[in-house]
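Morning. Coffee machine broken again, so started the prediction first thing and wrote up yesterday's gels while waiting. Chain of 407 residues, entered below exactly as on the submission form.
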Amino acid sequence: MPLALLALAVVAFGIGTTEFATMGLLPQIADGIGVSVPQAGNVVSAYALGVVVGAPLLTGIGARVPHKRLLLWLSALFVVGNVASAFAPDFGLLFAARFLAGLPHGALFGVGAVVASKLVAPDRAARAVSKMFLGLTIANIVGVPAGTALGQQLGWRSAYGAVAVIGVLALIALALFVPDQPRGRQSGIRHELRAMGNRQVAIGLGTAVVGFGGFFAVYSYLVPMLTNLTGISDSSTTLVLALYGVGMTLGTLVAGPLTDRALRPTMYGGLALLAAALVAFYFTVHSTVGALITITFIGAMGSLITTPVQMLLMAKAKNAPTMAAASNHSAFNLANAGGAWLGGLAISAGWGWASPSLVGAALAVAGLGLAFAGGAMERRDGRTASSEVITSSAAETRAEAAPTHQA
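Came back before lunch.
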């Protein structure tokens, strides 16, 4: 079991590295393919678009494929996408290659989360899923800075080549250590789509899009906020981003046990504390020490939300959790795009570099509201189900007690 979870964590590490290292290599990519930096930034959007499209699409296509085999196919596609990125000769082909690399992202996390949850006892499922997510957070500490440094020294293509090597290692580890998990008799695209129609699944995805959008409203503009307001030099921002990753790792470590004990309270607490930290960052961003402490806490609270939302979607989708789990990562990428857009609007409106913090806090509070709405609906549905059982039992009792009249 530990080796199987390690294999899944390696997959997550590769995904996290390829997703975020591009942002640090945009000047090199722009020079290499002869475009402007803003135009090169579109390859980041191409990857995110691939995630949004690929999560439901590839999960649906593979709805009847055994989980281990599906993980291997998706990992192979991930390797192909990054190799294509490394050899893309121009902007158009690089855009297509990044889209291709993003396609398996959500499905890998979704299928991997389902596989991880089945490797352990039900009361430890969230801990297993959070261990897989550790690969993503550690990528922000090690993989992204290392990939950025490699790309700056040896050329941006070498970074994608290194990620492809990580993908091959992950593929080998999955083949060796992840046990076979056959799909149930009811598996199939219709079964998965029917589960996606659950209202709680829709509310959970909405919570991820809106609430996690608060995290990305600040993360997207963290470097210019630090250089313009905190006074941190450009050369030191990589270390600060690594500190952000440390916070994310700490949040992921505590998210598993807390979610296993109390799923909804963990989600409520994470969103509330994220909102409070984002408001605090609006004031602490002018102090180096205060900003660094707050950044670490924001990273921790952002990651604290991920595991309970993932487990909630898997629980509410019941016997067809794979597409719901994968769609969660589509939701996170929509949160990335939406949070960055709203934070950018605030800056463009002249509200100052610190304004994305308040935008993010508002989004976190809105996400908390959606989470509370889902909890209230769950309690109401539970009471309705209980009353239906009691009414049905009473009717059966009356029927048994009624005298029988014979003609």
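The chain is about 85% helix and 0% strand. Going to sketch it on the whiteboard this afternoon.
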